[in-house]
Amino acid sequence: MATRVRARVQGTVQGVGFRPYVYRLARAERLGGWVRNDERGVVLEVEGAVDAVERFLARLPREAPPLAAVERVRRRALACVGESEFAIVESRGRGPAAAPVAPDTPPCAACLDELQDPADRRFRYPFVNCTDCGPRFTIVSGVPYDRTRTTMASFEMCAACRAEYDDPLDRRFHAEPNACPDCGPRARLVDAGVRDAGTEARDARAAAAASLVDAELAPRDAVAAAAAALLDGAIVAVKGVGGYHLACRADDEAAVAALRARKHREDKPFALMAADLDAAGALVELTAAEERLMTGRERPIVIATRRPAAAVAAAVAPGRPDLGVMLPSTPLHHLLLADAGVPLVMTSGNVSDEPIAFDDADALERLSGVADRFLVHDRPIETRADDSVVRGPLLLRRSRGLVPAAIELPAAQRPLLSCGAELKSTFCLAKGGRAWVGHHIGDLKNWETLRSYHAGIAHFERLFAIAPELVAHDLHPDYLSTAYALERDGVERLAVQHHHAHLAACLAEHGEAGPAVGAIYDGAGLGSDETVWGGELLVGAVAGCERAGHIWPVRLPGGDAAVREPWRMACAWLHALGDADPAMPPALADAVTRERWEAVAALVRSGTAAPVTTSAGRLFDAVAALCGIRSVVNYEGQAAAELEATCDPHERGAYPMPVAAAAAPAARAAPVASGATDATPPFVLDARATIAAVVDDLGRGVAPAVVAARFHGALAHATAHACELVASRHGLDAVVLSGGAFQNRVLLEGTSELLAGRGLRVLFPRRLPPNDGGIAFGQAAIAASAARS
Length: 789
Description:
There is one protein chain. By secondary structure, the chain is of the alpha/beta class. The protein has 5 domains: 2-88, Alpha-Beta Plaits; 104-184, DHBP synthase; 187-390, DHBP synthase (Alpha-Beta Complex), CATH 3.90.870.10; 406-510 and 784-788, Nucleotidyltransferase, domain 5; 516-556 and 566-574 and 612-765, 2-Layer Sandwich (Nucleotidyltransferase, domain 5), CATH 3.30.420. Helix content is 32%, strand content 20%. The chain has 23 helices and 31 strands. The strands form 5 sheets. Strands 6, 7, 8, 9, 10, 11, 12, 13, 14, 15 and 16 form an 11-stranded mixed β-sheet that branches. Helix 6 packs across helix 10, helix 14 (498-509) packs across helix 23 and helix 18 (616-626) packs across helix 19. The protein is globular, with a radius of gyration of 28 Å. The relative contact order is 0.09.
């Protein structure tokens, strides 16, 4: 007996070899019918014996290609038409697009074999790919995912490539970026002439930017020529899959120092790229989990402990005990690392806080003062994407290799946009139970970054056919992401408190609605009482929460100036001990003049230009300054990161940090979201006792490494104790740890262990960053919950 079934397959099923897989599976089961892409995914019809059709449908999601992610298969019976042959038919796009696009993927084993085989026609071809690997998100301009909707549209395939592309049994069947040296993109090495001076050099660089295709220095093998330049000490801008990197030898102190000077990046660590796992293992100590991450298809930067004998220049990561290392993510990178034979610095192709460069002419103009040469190619990048970053169990930056994979958001039925925060900015679009969190954008205060933010939202709206009806944004009125939300016409808006968004993001990521206790520690976020929050204990759910506690409030002298100059927070915390005119600590004598110290102390006393804050980040800054570790920062979070790096791993002591319910009416619980009614007084983590102990130990000559470890112990113990009190008060068993301060592994692991010892279940972000890169998803979860109610 025969039957015919139509099946709608949803998920990441375009551009991943799914149709040829269906073709082979149908033929194996001797079924007739067809399969095609459309704007929602893949649709197919199969006809044949009932048992064969049922086997086909059972195997369909179970044996899918490696890059595919089948979310659901919906079927319906049809009348038989007597079809016995199976075919792949032309794609259709009748309605709004809703087919997920796959992230970019490193070359598969089969493609690497071809890359390294002198007998293969793709030997040393930097753009080898197939349906199991290669660029996806960064080259796609629309869906259904076909070559005409990618940046490969202008490259006409040669006869050999076309034969592969048209053969359903070939692994390159409908591999949209398919190409070879005869018909595809080509790499070129361009001389930027940055060592020249004056107007003539600038004019020469501008001319080169206008004619990249004519500026070829290595017509036969640009990659080999670039590797030779790197070995000679040059800085080379390398065009990757999502933008440009700046590369130099990792073991060349002069080259790394020159890169720092030209890039205007004083202290922030550079990422490294190693040829393979063995080469990476010579640089850092890798756990089995970190090895899996490093070799996985996401290919993130993995931050791990530096090996003492690592052949790495001191300027790569000054003063840091760890290194960020990644493996090649494209065939071009594989060739470059193999030819160079040494690990390379491979840092974002930008200057200071600018976004990563991805357009060729723009890159040559912006990076010409940094790079000596440019390793370019003529396959355009549609969407820029920085490298993703992982540290231990935490994802610190979600971008290349992970975006635009969807995250489930069950309540998101109404199309919505959430605009994220100001720093480490991302956005999120959601509809129909799925959320698409955008790639890492950066600091919106930079004009180029803000332009990238606007363009990214527009691209995602087109790609996933989302016309937002509801727009969520941060409560802070001065964030540029908030300004963007307020400029959107014809939409409903929802303001979301910053720390509630952190709590909601973690809960929603874990598929939980709450309630739970949340310890949300970061640098700053506008509180519902209009003060600067940042060391918060919340209790509640995605739908709403209340402030259940916080770190002792102090003044933030000079506002943003205190973020850049941690010594100001040392002054504020010393004042909080009861000293109206605190003496300047000896550790700051060489960094701060007495006149400046006294001026800041006056701000703290008067409250002028010194708002109240409960920030955990600023507490870390104060301790780092008191220890003489960092009085002025060159990048966000530097003082806290260096304080963590200073910790003596053998020290188990902890300073006091009392936890008690606040009695003052002004400190009573403040609602964070609508519907909050609890009027019980919040718990306060009194870090004044901690600061007093820090000062006392430093005065007695205790090493900063011991002081740093005892401070971390104090905050971990106080946080666990306070969370236990809040959980007991509300009858809860789950605690969320999130916010940028929990990027700190010493704090995260110490607090998690203490909470688990108290019988509490600990949740922290896994698929999204704990920093502000996760805020947009939290805003989306809250907005979806509000829309449903």
